[in-house]
Structure formats: structure tokens, C-alpha cells
Here is the input.
Amino acid sequence: MWHRHSCLCALGRPEPVCIGSFSPGRTDKSVCATRDETTADVWRAATAVAALHNAHRMVRVPINGIGVIAPGAIGVDAFRAQLASGASAIAPVDRFDTSGLRTHDAALVRDFKPKDFIAPMKMRRMNGLSRFAVAAAKLAIDDAGGAIGADTGVAMGTAFGPVQTSVEYMKEYVEKGAALAPPQLFAESVANAPGSHIAIEWGLRGFNVTITQRESSALAAAMYACAQLLKGSARAALIGGVEEVNEMLFSVLDRLGGCAMGEGSAVLVANAGTRKPYAWLSGFGIARDTTATISDWGEDASAVARAMRAALDDAELDTVDAIYASANGNVRADRLEARAIEALFGDRVPIVKTKQIFGEYAAGGMLQFVAAILAVDEQRYDRVLVNSLSAGGGIVCAVVTS
Amino acid sequence: MRTPDLATRIAVTGAGIICAIGRNKGEVWQSIVESRDGIGKLTRFPGETFPTDIAAEVGELPSHKRLSRTDRLAVVAASEAITQAGEFPRERAIVSTGTSTGGLLEGEDFYLHGRTRASRVLQQPTSGPSDAVARAFHLGGGVLSNATACASAGAAIGMAADFLRSHHADVAIAGGSDALCRLTYSGFNVLQAVDPAPCKPFAADRKGITLGEGAAYLVLERWDDAIARGATILAELCGYGASCDAHHPTAPAEDGSGAQAAMRGALAEASLAPDAIDYVNAHGTGTLLNDSAETKALRSTFGDRVPVSSTKSYFGHTLGAAGGVEAVISVLALLHQTAPPTLRLAKSADDCTLDYIPHTPREMAMTNMLSNTFGFGGSNVSLLFRRV
Here is the structure.
């Protein structure tokens, strides 16, 4: 007998996943299919009925835990207080020399002690990004309460990833030669190293991907993770973002002009743990502004509106109570977003800006997302739209609900 | 939130490829049929010395002042795929690219010589290829970039299929792109994972990978949409499985359990039993650990029944692009009903005891096949394709 469940049990899942208060289509598909019946046509006939049955059924993903390593705040409670005070973590950079540059400020994580979160032997194998991410994941898992199962996936977002590690590797490459550069740096030079360390630390054997879509990275990672949870390919997910301010990146962004840079990591626990959900991820929309150049924002507000509309449709909503804007201080980007919001919502919906507190790219874009989730948790809003507009024209929007 | 509906069939309506054995599908398949590899002397970094000196290079590409080499490879491959797919709604088409290095080559030039424009360095973080393809072909559905090491393109294709199934997009240009760069060429040498001779996957005398470069894309659509617009369907993407070893930053789990979970995930999505699979295009890098672990995973999933081959013996390990390049090879194999061989497999290793289709292509009836890609960090992806 070939059993549908035993197939899914490749990741140790004993039963179909059920997200929140609704059963997604997968539940109905999880009837047993014998080996004799597993031709695609037979299966599709069965699943077509289930698909019709489940058409338009709303499903959403609970956020049960949050871990934050932010500029100016370690832990979700400190981050909550930072948001409430509105105090900006953007300050003069003392990590490297900024003389000769136009910009001298960034939002740096300053009071992070990795040894509080990671064993010394393990820490030696991790670059700065991995340390941020593993620490944020630990905070998130502790916050969610209870154990996290092996059938958990990991989706991380990072705009620039391991640029610092690549620079360090090239320095060794130049000084010692191609054959003697340190293998440890090479192992950490892949963008998915932080997600990999998280999986190793907690034995998480579900999907493990890293999305790198500039300013939209964290929201795109969340969109991917939710798709996996809803279709049942993992029971739970860690959804995170991570970023690190370094000299090379800072100097390049300085030449292009624009917003203050942030760093850190934030990780969400989705559909696991014992804690009451902070909020629910209820919809996503994606689009691209075809007028954008490769390293700048474009001018087509209708594309931004299309992504926002798609996220509302996905959440089966007509409007929201607030918009957590992408607004990062770049004149072109902010003007584009403002026009799109006005076209879709007029002036009816409050716009909340957060990046003056922790900068752009903070935790790979995840801090803005966490700010929206906390606003729903604090019952300030029931339905929030979160925007991310990336240079190059990519747009990802998400809807968070109570 | 709309759930990816697994009852929605995904059609492949276009495919494009550029790698060391050809600059389009025709050239690539001709090389496959003639058992002709694209491995030669490393020329990309003149004046710099490495412990090994061979690679599977693509050669010169049209220059472009704003695009990295990885971006340009991506545009060439995507152009072939999009042209083949014909007229589709551009405003609802997403681009989903896997890449591990992005514009790292240009980042290295910036670091070593300060000679590259600063804006190019911004493409180092790997969003460049998707942005370049979307801009070149005026695609308005969205851009996604996946940087999950050597599993990147497989994950990018799976992600695209999910977003079609949930109607977040109507068409997806999905694949991968990676150019050779110093960091990866040096890094794999430092790990002692590069064979000084052309790689010999599954062979007794295998010593590691041969580094390659390339790009490949599929055009994916929901089956009914493709039929409705009269598109020619090349193959069906029936399943996507993803897993993580959770074992080691660079080495695979030796028992192959992670690889097995990915393959079983793909089978589950396609609602197929293992005995429905006719051929597996293996990850087959040529390293001691991968080929042994993957063989264990294949054996425990399929027994010793299913023919397996590694086409990395032709075009090397294209890293983040591998899942895309090998997805296009898989579609071609189904179209031609011919399984590509594993080159240079004079004698299989004692721990590699399957049918690896040595030396020459094998004409055989194939309905369903798997394409495996695994990467650093223990990420595993398996894609299941079906003949139309």
C-alpha cells in the first residue's frame, strides 16, 4: 500500500497541517490513496472536488512568537517600548571610518552580546549575520513557548546578505592566496548561512530558503513561508530577516544617496508554540513597476496600487485601518508610494512610518513587519497593510489582521 | 489568503539555457547527444593562480555597462525561454531567479581594483538577475530572488509554481543564473572539493566538483491558461519538495535523509508513488560525500530500479543556477525521450551502486522524472516533471 500520509511523513508529519481556525484544502486531499489509485488523473479527479469545495475559503497564519535583535532594542518588549517612545536609533557610525562620505549615520545594533544566546564553540563558526539571526530565533522560540518540531521550515530574507564575509574572504585571498583563504569564511559567504545555522541549532528539517529581494526581502520570505504552510509542506515556520551594516556597503549606498541604513535580525514563529497569537498573516500581493531601473525606484504608482490591492483581495478585505509604509526617506520612493496610497485609499487611512526609528534594511525589512504585528497585538488596529517597495521595481505587500 | 492549489496543473511553455555546452537548447542537446562536455582550462581570471585550473566556462557575452555577468547570462537564457513561450500577459508575469553569487564577480573587481561602477556592487546581493530579466522583457508581475546556495534555482522554480497555484501571478519566468567568480572558485578549492581533472560523478576515482557557470529559465503557467492561449506545452511541473538536513553548514547528511525527504515531498505533491519515476537527474556533484549520500537517498526511495545520471559531468556545477540548468535538461530529456548519461564513469565507486547511465545517452520511455539540487546549509530541493 502506498499511503498518502506515509508520503508526507518524509518530514515526520503524522497528520495534515491545519492552519488556524480553518482547514486548508490539503485536509480534504489527505484521504488515503492506495498504490493502485495513484495515477495523476485519478488523484486530480478527487482533488478537483476538494478544490471546488475549498475555493475562496480564507485561511491565515498565526504569529505565535517574536524575537528581535534591533538597533536600540534586544527582545520584543524592548522593541515595543522603543516603538512607543519613537526614539530613533540612527546615530553617527563608530564601527568604521566614514570621513570622506556624505552620510555618517546609521542604525547599528550596539548592545548585542552573542554569547548570551550562542555557545562559544558554535559562535566561532558564525559570521555577524548568523549570530544576529540565531539569537533572534532563540528569542522567538522562547517567546512562542513549547517545543518546536522538526517539521518546521525556515524562510529568511536579507537585502545584501554576507557582503562583509565576502569582503573578509577577498582580503584573505589577496593576502594569503587563493589556496589558503580560510574555509570557514567561505562556508559563511552564502546568503543562506543564517537560515542554515537556525536549522542546525533546533533540528528543523522542513524547507529552508533565503530570499534576497532588496527592500522586499522579508515580506517575500513571509509570503513564501505562508504558501508552504497553507499547502501543508511543513507544520510550522520560522520567518525572519537579517542585515548587517558594513563599510563597503555603506560607502556604496552613500554614493547612490538615500536613506539611513539599519541592521539586526527579527524572527517570527508561525503556527507553533503555546502563546496566543500576536496577529495573523492574512494576505499578500506582489507586482513590479516596469518603469523602474535596476538600482532605482520607478514612477508607476498603479503598479504599487496593484500590489496593495492584490494583498487586500488575498485577505478578502476592502480596506485596512492603517498602512505601515515602505517610506524610507528616498524622495523618489516615498513620492511613488504616497501617490499609490492616495489613489487607492484617498486620505482615509492613517499612514505609519517606522524607518526613522531603525533605518531601511533593518533586519532585512522584518522590523517594519514586526512593528505592524505589534500594533495589531496592542489592538491599535485590526487590519494593517504593510508595504515594501524595492529598488529595481519589486513590490511586495502583506496584510496583518487581529 | 489563497492556498496554492495542488490540483492546479503547471505547464512548462518555454525553456532557455546557456552553459558550457551550448548557448541555447539546440546546441546543448547536440552536445548531450554527442557526449561532448564543456570543461576546459580556466580563463576567467588571468594572472591569478588556483590549486586547480579547469572550469566549465561559457565564454564571452555581449557587454552591458549596467549588468553583471550573472545578469547577462540570465537575460540570454530568459530571452530564449520567453521567445519560445510566445505571447503571454507580461503585466502578470513574475521573475523568480536562484543565484548564489549574483554580481559577486563585479564586487571582487571593485574590491581588487576599484574599477567597477559602485552601482554594480549593489547587484552583488543577488537580486540583480531577476531585476535585469524583468526590466529587459517589461514584466510587471513581481520579482523574487532566491539565494539558497546551490539549491537556489530549484527553490526559485518551486516558489514560482506555488505562486501560480495561489493565483498571485499568472505566468512565471523561473530559473537560475550564476557566473564563475573568484570567491567560489577559490572557496571550493580551499575546501578541497574540486577535482583537478574533469569531474567524475559517482566514479570510484571521483575527487570533487568541476566549477561551471550558466543560466536557465522555464516559463511556467497554469495548465488551463496555457491551453486557452494556444501555447505549446513542453512538459508539466508536477511537484516540488524541499527539506533541510539540519546537519552541517557545508557537508550533506551522510545517510541521505534530507535528500530523501525532498524527493518524497515532490512525489507527495504530484500524488505519485516512487515506482512512477522513470529517471532521476541527480545532483551528482562528484564529491565523495554528496554522491554517496545521494545514492543512499535514491536507493532508499526507489531501490536500485531507477536509472540516474549527473549532467554536471557535461557543464560542471553551476552552483545557484544548477536547479534551473538541470530543469531545462530534464524537460529536454522528456521531450526527446532520452536520458543523458554520466560522462567519464569508467568504474562506479563501491558506495555508488545504481544504474548511472555511463558514457552515452539512453533512449528510453520516460513519463515522470525527478531533478535534484542540494546546497550548502543542507537545503535540498527536488522537482518532479512529467512528459506531456
The mean pLDDT of chain A is 87. The radius of gyration of chain A is 22 Å. The first strand of chain A starts at residue 61 and ends at 70.
